[in-house]
């Protein structure tokens, strides 16, 4: 009798823990981030960087061992340059990253390695309760730097002429 109820208790405990992990696994992760125009052509953010609305970004997960794509989804940035990509499934032991794909601005569509892609961790098993994963800011480089850039860079502490990319 005592043995039987102990067994029942044990089964109950196992079931509760499996329900909890099931609930966690079912929790949808969301990748959010922003796309900017590097208006000073310096490959870092300045206060003159502008959010790009209507830019296409692509999230892709690949298996670590053979690089087979397991998940892929595109999103378009909103008025403030933000995007949000819902993720299906758990992507443990995969490499997931968001990259900029297309810019709607003809004057700001140059790719740059520094802002082209951001890796994101997409597993619910890493102990992070928060379902939102924030990617590093992404962006494109403007064809011509804005006239205000020299001053802004000076204010940021760069001596004149020290930032290579500024004309
Ligand atoms: C743009 O998208 C981001 C990420 O989803 C969101 O936080 C922000 O509120 C959105 N802004 C507008 C103006 O819709």
From TrEMBL:
A Gene Ontology molecular function term of the record:
glycosyltransferase activity
Family annotation (InterPro entries) = Pollen_Ole_e1_allergen
Position of the signal peptide: 1-25
UniProt KW keywords: Disulfide bond, Signal
Sequence similarity = Belongs to the Ole e I family.
What name appears for this protein in its UniProt entry?
Answer: Alg9-like mannosyltransferase family isoform 1
- Organism, per UniProt? Hibiscus syriacus (Rose of Sharon)
């Amino acid at each position: 009798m005592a043995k039987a109820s102990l067994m029942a208790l044990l089964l109950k405990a196992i079931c509760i823990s499996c329900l909890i992990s099931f609930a966690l696994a079912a929790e949808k992760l969301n990748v959010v981030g922003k796309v900017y125009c590097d208006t000073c052509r310096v490959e870092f953010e300045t206060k003159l960087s502008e959010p790009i609305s209507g830019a296409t970004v692509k999230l892709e997960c690949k298996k670590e061992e053979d690089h087979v794509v397991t998940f892929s989804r595109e999103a378009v940035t909103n008025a403030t340059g933000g995007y949000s990509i819902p993720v299906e499934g758990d992507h443990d032991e995969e490499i997931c990253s968001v990259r900029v794909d297309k810019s709607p601005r003809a004057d700001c569509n140059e790719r740059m390695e520094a802002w082209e892609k951001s890796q994101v961790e997409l597993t619910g098993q890493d102990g992070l309760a928060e379902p939102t994963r924030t990617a590093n800011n992404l962006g494109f480089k403007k064809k011509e730097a804005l006239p205000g850039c020299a001053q802004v860079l000076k204010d940021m502490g760069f001596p004149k002429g020290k930032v290579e990319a500024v004309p």
